[in-house]
Amino acid sequence: MVALLSEMKITRTALERPTALPGPYDGFFSFPLSKGGYSGVAVYADSRVAIPIKAEEGLTGMLQPKPPLSPEERVSSASSYPDPDHFEFFPEEDGSTPPDFATAGLDYEGRALVVDFGLFVLVNVYCPAETSDSRLSFKMNFHRLLEKRVRSLIAEGREVILVGDINIAATPLDHGEGSLASRQIGFYDHPPRAWYQSFLEPDGPMVDAVRKCHPAREGMYTHWSTLLSARGSNYGSRIDYILITKGLLPWFKFGDIQADVLGSDHCPVYIDLHDEIVLPSGETRTLKSALEMDSLTPRDPPRICAKFWTEFSGKQTLVSAFFTKKKEAVSTINGDSPKVNVPREVSVPVTDSGIGETAATELTIVEPSPAPSQKALGKRKQSQQDGPTAPRPAKKLSAKETTSKKAKRPDGQAKLSSFFTQPSQPKKAPPTTSTSHRSKSRSKSSSAAPTPPDTNSASTSAVVEIIEIDSDLDIHPDSSSQVPVGSSQLSEAEQLEADLAFARSLAEEDDALINNSPERRKADPSAWKSLLAPLEAPLCTVHKEPSKRFIVNKTGPNKGKAFYGPATTKGGRSGFEKR
Q: Cβ(60)–Cβ(82) under 8 Å?
């Protein structure tokens, strides 16, 4: 079974997997390039019955996926696609005609899919409606482009099935008001209807399959206006068709509409094909073999199939994955359950290196799991054998380390609030002496060797800042930090104390200028207001007055852009007037 939809009115981002790939069906879609939730067509092919051989979007061959289709993947050869230089465009209201298909935008509204099934080429279209006189040119150019594409396929020796909303009532029998005399006068003079008659037999190559089964049936409508609630009274029109080339008539079995199927202002239209036919040579040919489905090894659908999209092939991480509980990834394709390696977090012990905590810490590293039998993603603690082979003593955390372990941040990372608070002063440590001549060096660990910490000592849970200075300096804790009056020369110790006192005085002056406590500054929103305040308009270079911000409202490439200009002129009138 092959199902076709017209006027999908959905975007690719809003398309969910159950809709794109329902059950065993392969989905093919064409969306408009610029208008979201507008137009759009789709083809669903049951992979158990019919797998397309080739597929492409549009009628001109210009719409290409990434990377573009190769010549072997394209439905037709490059020379078979419509040529704009030999195309008769329908004129616009002003008499002009577009120079090419790109300018006309005929393939940019997601209105056509061409799918090759071997026995026939299926063309699913949603033809434009004549909503206004300005759309007549676009509608006629699309119809002519469709005819060019179908005739080129026929010239290649292919059979064609054309399905979709043509948006034309072919005869008065297909219109709710077709029996009125006023409607019958000049009924076939309308350009779209005149084109459609030339496209159908006996003048054209296509056969109206459903009308062939019901040549005189009245009220066989496929569309009803929802504004008039016309479906109850069957006041509608037949604008949805299934057209086939004459070479497929031996395969054609039956066709009809399904007016009792609700859910849309249109109703389904269908045809059935024979399971097998007898060729003129006397040979019996099955539909399965004609669709090239008799191979024991199923083939993959064409590359533009939705199953190969990144969002449905498992190659793209969805936004919803960040808001759901992590689970072990398991994917199932065609009934198989392949093994999937999922990342896992391994806790690696890090010994003291002079820059870490006094006790050893743990560094979390994300690495691929070697086998799917690993525990679920997100488990942070691993057994001792996952770490280095070197022995490591057991670590005991103090109460302070236990409560603040989750709140610890990497070195160099700060909270946003720290930019609006006064930095805290570090606690002074009692000076110590050392034989080393390295001045002002810091250390946060007593030893790099993995010795067990002393749990009875209170210093294991605190970070001690040690300042090493030259041992030959005579420093007294109770010495004055001020330079004695009248002293013309200072010793090294006195100079050091004087520098420290000067640094403290500068810090106190900065605090006095700020004149805010940390709590007050944190609660004061003025800091955010100053950051988020709108920019002031610059001064006019001519009038030396504040300029005015203007926004372009005229349709064109600059619409919506903002700029500054003079607010007034000498006459008091606006500097920008209609021209």
A: yes
Q: How far is CA 160 from CA 148, 150, 475, in A?
A: 13, 7, 101
Tens digit of pLDDT for each residue in 456-505? 444 444 444 444 544 444 444 444 444 444 444 567 778 888 888 888 87
pLDDT in tens, 328-344: 544 444 444 444 444 44
d(CA 397, CA 399) in angstroms, rounded, equals: 7
Which of 453, 165, 120 has its CA nearest to residue 290? Answer: 120
Instruction: Kindly report the number of other CB atoms within 10 A of residue 263's CB atom.
Output: 7
CA nearest neighbour of 44 among 27, 67, 20:
27
| Contact status, residue 415 vs residue 407, Cβ threshold 8 Å | no
SS3 call for 350 = strand
For residue 174, give the nearest of 190, 193, 160, 201 by alpha carbon. 193
Q: Which two tokens stand for residue 570?
A: 């000498």
Q: How many CB atoms lie within 10 A of CB 196?
A: 25
Contact status, residue 377 vs residue 326, Cβ threshold 8 Å: yes
Query: How would you list the strands of the sheet with 206-208, edge to edge?
Result: 54-57, 112-116, 121-126, 160-165, 240-245, 206-208
With residues binned 3-state (H G I as helix, E B as strand, rest as coil), the percentages for the chain, rounded to 5, are 20, 20, 60
Mean pLDDT of the 131-140 span:
93
Between CA 464 and CA 454 the distance in angstroms is 15
Which residue is it, tokens 């100079």?
495
User: In the structure encoding, which two tokens stand for residue 351, read together?
Assistant: 């010994």
Amino acid letter, 539: L
Across-strand partners of 43?
Answer: 4, 28
The model's pLDDT over 491-528, given as tens digits with 9 standing for 90+, comes to: 777 888 888 888 887 877 766 666 555 555 555 666 66
Q: Which residues fall within 8 angstroms of residue 67, CB to CB, at 6 or more apart?
A: none
